[in-house]
Amino acid sequence: MEKIVNSISFKLQNLELKVSTIDNRVQEVEKCSSYISDQFENQSAELKTTKDTIKNVQDSCTNLQGQLKSLEAKHESFNVRVLDGEYRDMRDNLIMYGIPEQQQGTEHGADNSDALAEEFFTKRLGLAGGDMELDRAHRLGHPERSKKPMPIIVKFHRYKDREDVRAQANSMRNDLKSSNHGVGVQIPKEWRDARSRLYSIMQAERLKGNRVRMVADKLYINGQQYKPPTITGQ
């Protein structure tokens, strides 16, 4: 019996030791769990703060996008007004191409663009050039950069004279082209660039028999404004 009691006592001691070890481990686990819980709460608070910050940034971006669109619309409106003002200033102007520069000592001197323009109207277009009042005329460009005669910009005092010259030049377009001459209206550079991208389309539509015309920087086909096709992703 004594041996049995001693054996049981020994086993109880071992069991108590194991229970004590388990108890220590449980305490460690509880500590870790408490630490993790604290960290989770801290991270949850930080996450909420981050979400609030992101929302504020998104709201700010939305406001900025709205302001940007408004500024772009104002800029576009301002740009249209500026271009329209430039065009009005150019309304009485024509550009003449292919008229050689006169050398020093010749009839018209080094650069008598007024006289050259009147001579072109009279001798080439068959109009009464001497009866037209010109406000000014000058060459466009830099002689050292151009292999061809620089164009002459002519500002007419009377719009009717400008239209008479333009209409006569249009009726003689092919004849003038054969001698490397030409007459065109002056428009802002932005409109010229836009038109240059639309000329091939205008010619193709004209060959199809459609009515085409350019207004400012826009192409109209049978009365409808041309819109480039939208390219969609595959």
Topology of this structure?
Elements: H1 2-90, E1 93-97, H2 113-124, E2 134-139, E3 152-156, H3 159-171, H4 173-178, E4 182-185, H5 189-207, E5 212-215, E6 218-221, E7 224-225
Antiparallel strand pairs: 1-3, 1-4, 2-3, 5-6, 6-7
So how many helices? 5
Secondary structure class reads alpha+beta
- How many domains make up the coordinates? 3
Order of strands in the sheet with the most strands? 2-3-1-4
For the termini, the CA-CA separation is 92 Å
Q: How much helicity do the residues have?
A: 55-70%
- Uncertain residue segments: 103-109
In round numbers, the mean pLDDT is 84
Order of helices and strands: HEHEEHHEHEEE
> How much of the polypeptide forms β-strand, as a percent range?
5-15%
* Main β-sheet description: 4 strands, antiparallel
Taking all Cα atoms into account, the compactness measure Rg is 43 Å
Q: Can you count the beta strands?
A: 7
Shape call = rod-shaped
